[in-house]
Amino acid sequence: MIGRDDELRQLSAFVTAAERQALVLRGETGVGKSALLDHVAKLASGAGHGVIRAAGVEAESGLPFAGLHQLVHPLLPSVDGLDQVHRDVFATVYGRSGGKPPSVMSLGIAVLDLLSLVSSAKPLLLLLDDGQWLDASSVAVIGFVGRRLNGGSVKLLVGLRSDVASGFDTAALPVLPVGSLPDEAARRLLDLRRPGLDTHVRRLVLDQARGNPLALLELSADIDGDRTGGGAARLLGSPDASVRLPVPRRLQHVYGTRIKALGDDVRQELLRGALDGVGATPGTALAPGSRRYRMRDAEEALAAGLLSIDPVSGDFVFRHPLVRSTVVQTATPNERRAAHAALARVHRDDVERSATHLAAATVDPDEEVAAALEAAAESATRRGSAVAAVAWLTRAAELSENREDRSRRLGDAAFAAGHAGLFEQAQRLVRSDHAAGTDEPPASVVTSAYLAFFEDGDVRHSHRQVVTAIENLGEREPGKASDVLTRLVNLLLAIDQYAGDPAQWEETRALLGSLGDPVPARSLIYQDAWGDVVRHGAGVAERVEREFTDLSAMEPWDITRLSVAAYHVDTLSHYRPHLQRTVDREAETGFVRNSMTMLHLIMLDQMAVGEWDEAERTGQRDLELTSSHGYALLAHHTRAYLGLLAAMRGQVERARELQATVDAWARPRGVGFLTQITDTIGTTAALSEGDYEAAYLHAIGITPPGTFTPYAHQAPRTLLDLVEAALHTGRSEQARTHALAAHHAHLPDISPRLALTTHGALAMTATDPTEADHHYHHAETHPSAPTFPFELARIRLAHGIRLRHTQGSRSARPLLVQAAETFERLGAPTWAERARAELRASGLATRVTSAQLAELTWQERQIADLAAGGLTNKEIGQRMHLSPRTVSSHLYRVFPKLGITSRAALRDALAKLEEGS
User: Fold this and answer.
1) 538 part of a folded domain
2) Spatial CA neighbour of 86 closest among 588, 581, 553, 595
3) Where is the signal peptide (predicted)?
4) What's the confidence (pLDDT) of residue 661?
5) Of 222, 245, 268, at which residue does a domain stop?
6) Rg (the chain; Cα; Å)
7) 235 and 164 belong to one structural domain
8) At what angle do helices 5-16 and 33-46 cross, to 10 degrees?
């Protein structure tokens, strides 16, 4: 370890200090990262740590969770000590159960808990070499874990090549750069390991190695072992001594020369090991039962300095990752295919590994290999790796023996790519499946229409394109259900949801009705919920609930679509935990398209239940995600929600800016779903400002009073807005007509929120006090009323105003205070001020709370009056035949009710209470 004093000091501190739990070593190939990792491993072992080592390999960079398996495998005996939820997570990732793929967050938390459990008995050091070759799924989870190892007894150290891009580049882990050796240290190392070199050769090695320790040792060894006198020429790789190849290329030249000198059998053995990811550093060879290839009879390569012996397992391992990659590069294509074929036989019981080797071994179309790749893609999807699924499906299409299967697999690959946010790749797949002058295959229509829809909001042409594809498929395969048909139907329903066009919806309903049984039950739920919930929403909530009872049978997009249906019937809060458990995986390593809608839904539920600050953060995260992936439709959808949230909070300038942006994009395209939200933004902003005339005009742009425009999803949602705006502008008849229309349409039977707002609207518009009290009671005592605090506070405000005018200030105050408190908690200052103004009109100028306004009992009032007159607790007790302790307890309850903290304030508080009654 010559010339590494600074690095060794920092690494020693890393192992022993508590401040830093994760660290990345970054340097060029051969600079000595593995040697430093070896040093840290010995240091940690000597300090009593358990050490777990793993290494990324190029051959496994496409296998989901291959790297994570290496780190976690030695800890699996301890999994039984975790709770059932985390045991299920590991069972799914390891393919031992068919459960729902875990999110990055849930898997990361499970790994953290496992590490915590194991390290409670002994501190752990996790060493990961060649992290640049780690698969994307593993990088996401290990990065998550590394960022959260704070103050515990687990350390993570990752080695990375600086000349190769890596997922760890954005993992936000601290970095320790490892540079070349200084000149003096390079000379010392060379003299120590290769004493007696010719002066000219020594100078040549130092010049070509440029301080790279591996290059110093390998280049000098190549010359020192040469007996032909051509070592220096080989070192240069050129007769011109002025040529300076990059160090990795120089080393590859050296290793390539040694490999070519081996016998054929040994070279083939090395090739099989390299293609299957055999370890490249001691300590990384797997134990018996490993799924990797084990090299045999390779002593010749060991003698040539290409292999080492793992001291634990006794297996051959490559001396350096560069040796492994050079073995592959020096082999001919036929040699590589033969090696892959042999490895496929070795791994015939491993669906993913076997398929990977079969794909590389096969040149001509082969249906058996294509089916194996398709099965591997399905396995990857279940385990949460969309990128691997796309790659395997694409290769399966290339190896398909007939046009129909090729088209189907390309369609599946494009579908997965679109959901993963890989738009360019999805477009290439679609184009590759559509020959000029031929009809576009149905599977390709799914992707081409999907891209046009989500990238540019094309709800007109994409509707016609999908309808035509469904009709053609129905004519060609009448009465036959298929994945392609299901995707086309669900895409058509999504397009029509955004279009909000009654004619398109009616055409779709007729088309699906003509198809009959092949239309899945879930698609019929989407049809009824996403289209016209007023006319078709009865019973949808129960149907959604039944579907959610079997999550294990659902794909990520099934959960997303059902959650959209739940939003339309206002039961989304029941299912938000399912969304939050999966959204991080979908965003980072899986189907990113689903995560965008999941974030939409989480934001909507946060808005509904009053978590407005959290909703703002969720919306901003979603906007970054949708914008960065080119989903223009979903980006504008997110802006619309952010605008609506701003309007609810009284941030009218921001609300109207977002309203204008969304409207200018959506209206020319006919995206009615978004233009309805922009009208709602206008309504809500005007209500926040108290501009009821403007609010009314915006509201009737969504639906006229007394009816609910068909297929206008905002029509029932703005019921309270239209009624309130109409009442404040003297349009009592229109307000009453609209409230009665909600009652006649049975909106309370569709959703809990519509039950709350319908009773509120009926109460606000009732002229009969008894009827008004009846509906206010139903609204305010509805079991789900607290779930919708903004609407409940508005109803309480209206009720309080009514009571102040009909029954006096004292009756109104509790409702007005509750409304004011809710508006302030939500962050709706204009609404809060309106409630406070009503409180001041009721005779309360102080900022009292609902607890302060709770009525005093007769006994509490008597005790308070006596205490205000200056009597002690003992004197009050003698007069009222109570113990002093009981008197004290009563006063303890009286003080908060009156908003005071001492006896001295009693007289004034009681006087104010008397004035207001």
Assistant:
1) no
2) 581
3) none
4) 96
5) 245
6) 36
7) no
8) 40
Give burial (CB, 10 Å; 0-12/13-18/19+) of 770.
Answer: exposed
Residues 211 and 154 in one domain: no
User: Quick one: angle between helices 809-826 and 789-806, nearest 10?
Assistant: 160
Residue 38 in tokens: 């070896």
The torsion angles phi and psi of 908, rounded to 5 degrees, stand at -65, -40
Residues in the chain: 917
Token pair belonging to 323 = 């040796």
Tens of pLDDT along 453-499?
988 899 999 999 999 999 988 888 888 888 889 989 999 999 999 99
- Distances in Å between the alpha carbon of 792 and those of 84, 402, 598, 646, 818? 39, 61, 26, 19, 10
* Distance in angstroms between the alpha carbons of the first and the last residue of the chain: 87
Structure tokens at 557: 């997009």
Query: Beta strand 316-318 with 307-309: parallel, antiparallel or unpaired?
Result: antiparallel
For residue 838, what is the enclosing H or E element? helix 829-841
Which residues does 316 contact at the CB level (< 8 Å), separation at least 6?
A: 273, 278, 294, 295, 298, 301, 302, 307, 308, 309, 310
Furthest-apart CA atoms within the chain: distance in Å: 121
Among the candidates 245, 260, 278, a domain finishes at 245
371 part of a folded domain: no
Token readout for 44 is 């940690």
The type of residue at 834 is R
Counted domains in the chain:
3
What's the whole-number average pLDDT of the chain?
A: 85
The range of the structural domain enclosing residue 16 comes to: 5-177
Residue 146, domain member (yes or no): yes
pLDDT at residue 285 greater than cutoff 60? no
How far, in whole angstroms, is CA 25 from its chain's centroid? 28
- Among residues 67, 249, 281, which one has the least CA distance to residue 163? 249
Domain assignment of residue 756, yes or no:
no
Q: Residue 244: what pLDDT?
A: 56
CATH number at residue 869: 1.10.10.10
pLDDT (mean) for 282-290: 45
SS3 state of residue 144: helix
Q: pLDDT grade, residue 421 (50/70/90)? A: low
Supply 542's token pair.
């129960």
Same domain as 173, residue 138: yes
- In a shared domain, residues 10 and 95: yes
Q: Where are the alpha helices (DSSP H) in 74-212?
A: 84-93, 104-119, 136-147, 183-193, 199-209
pLDDT surpassing 80 at residue 92: no
Q: Which residues contact 428 (CB under 8 A, 6 or more apart)?
A: none
- Among 248-257, 552-561, 656-665, 712-721, which stretch is predicted with the lowest mean pLDDT? 552-561
- What percent of the chain shows pLDDT beyond 90? 42
Do 159 and 220 have their domain in common?
A: no
The sheet with strand 22-27 has its strands ordered as 50-55, 124-129, 154-161, 22-27, 175-177
Residue 239 near residue 256, CB atoms below 8 Å: no
**Distance between CA atoms of residues 76 and 87, nearest Å:** 10
Please name the amino acid found at residue 615: A
Residues 6+ apart with CB under 8 A from 148: 108, 112
pTM of the entire predicted model: 0.61
CA distance 168 to 155: 16
Please give the pLDDT value at position 746: 97
838 forms beta bridges with: none
Query: Is 139 in the same domain as 233?
Result: no
Q: Helix 692-702 crosses helix 719-728 at what angle (to 10 degrees)?
A: 140
Q: How far is CA 707 from the centre of its chain?
A: 39
Residue 21 CA to residue 15 CA, distance in Å, equals 8
pLDDT single digits (tens) 772-824: 999 999 999 999 999 999 999 999 999 999 999 999 888 899 999 999 999 99
Q: Mark whether 173 and 187 lie in a shared domain.
A: no
Whether the Cβ atoms of residue 27 and residue 161 lie closer than 8 Å to each other: yes
CB-based contact 403:574 (threshold 8 Å):
no
